[in-house]
Amino acid sequence: MSQPFPAELVFPAPAVISLPVAGSDARFPVRRVYCVGRNYLDHIREMGNDERQPPVFFSKPRDAVAANHSRIPYAQATSDLHYELELAVGLHSGGQDIPPETALTHVFGYAVALDMTRRDLQRALSAKGSPWDVAKGFDNSCPCAAIHPASTVGHPSSGNLELRVNDEIRQKADLAQMIWDVPNIIAYLSRYFTLAAGDLILTGTPAGVGPVKAGDRLEGRIDGLETLYIDIV
């Protein structure tokens, strides 16, 4: 019997999600998005969490990624949408049980990213011991600037990180303040997931997180990387 559509797919496959590579026409295809929570001591304290506990890990769908200079609608189902500025790490290879000593050989490059959060939902879910998925993994919840290859910027372990809302500084820290550095983040994640080319890892945010409203412009900077600009509409 003939079929009215191709046998191998019942509908067109989802589009490839990718980010620009700084300094070239190449694109970085996103496979998965992993995020680290509680990786700066001052942020742990401002959120009222136990600073003796290790960082937590969660994920976002890859189509939550939004391009630099995007105009992002204020997220639905929340009245307390927050910004969290972070260093993002893009992988060109991966594996399981990667030792920290070789973890950086899997890194393609680095970018400035935001972990947008429905804070009211996150607090309600945390109080019940429930997963954070709806608080973290919604549409446009992962704005990201271009990825800079490690071959050109190295592997930043220090440097200024700064988030401005309407030109007012809200977050300011140094990458050296991360509790878990990039090699140890990669090593830890690879104990639980098989990491692979295209994985994007957000490494946590410092203190100063807060709400945004429609009309706000967010400007995220990390030394040596493309600045991220996002408008909330």
- CATH topology title: Fumarylacetoacetate hydrolase, domain 2
Q: Per CATH, which architecture?
A: Alpha-Beta Complex
CATH class: Alpha Beta
Number of helices: 5
The best one-word shape is: globular
Helix-and-strand structural type? alpha+beta
CATH H-level superfamily? Fumarylacetoacetase-like, C-terminal domain
Q: What is the alpha-carbon Rg in Å?
A: 18 Å
Main sheet strand line-up: 4-3-15-8-9-12
Largest sheet: 6 strands, mixed
Distance between the termini: 50 Å
In what range is the share of β-strand residues?
A: 25-35%
Number of structurally distinct domains: 1
Poorly predicted tracts of residues: none
Percent of residues in helices comes to 10-25%
H and E string? EEEHEEEEEEEHHEEHEEHEEEE
Average pLDDT figure: 92
E-strand count: 18
Keywords: Hydrolase, Metal-binding
Domain Fumarylacetoacetase-like C-terminal: 33-228
GO molecular function: acetylpyruvate hydrolase activity; metal ion binding
InterPro entries: Fumarylacetoacetase-like_C (IPR011234), Fumarylacetoacetase_C_sf (IPR036663)
Describe this structure in words.
- The structure is a single chain.
- With about 230 residues, this protein is an alpha+beta fold.
- It has one domain: Fumarylacetoacetate hydrolase, domain 2 (Alpha-Beta Complex), CATH 3.90.850.
- The protein contains 5 helices and 18 strands.
- It has helices at about 40-45, 120-125, 135, 150-155, 180-190, and strands at about 20, 25-30, 35, 55-60, 65, 70, 80-85, 85-90, 105-115, 115-120, 140-145, 150, 160-165, 170-175, 200, 210, 215-220, 230.
- Strands 4-3-15-8-9-12 form a 6-stranded mixed sheet. It has a 5-stranded mixed sheet with strand order 6-18-17-13-14, with no helix packed on it. It has a 3-stranded antiparallel sheet with strand order 10-7-16.
- The radius of gyration is 18 Å and the shape is globular.
- The mean pLDDT is about 90.
